[in-house]
Amino acid sequence: MPITTLSSRELNQDVGRAKKAALNGPVFITDRGKPAHVLLNIEDYQRLIGKSRNLVEALSMPGLSETDFHPPRVTIPSREVDLS
Q: Is residue 68 part of a domain?
C-alpha cells in the first residue's frame, strides 16, 4: 500500500489528487514539513476503527439510490388461526 505525502499547500491546490491517492493508501498531509493529518478512504477508515454499520446507516449511504437491486419477490402463505 503506497503512502502519499502532500503539504497543506499542495492539498489546497489539488484536493482531487489527494482523494485519488487515498484510494490506494493513506495520504499524509504535512504542516511546515511535519505530518499533521492523514486522509483515508472510508473503507480503510472503517476497517481501522472496526466499526460495523447498522441497517439504517447502510441504507442511507450516498449513492445507494443508483444501485441496481431487484430482490426476488417472496410469497408467504397465510394459514388459518385456531382461537378455540
A: no
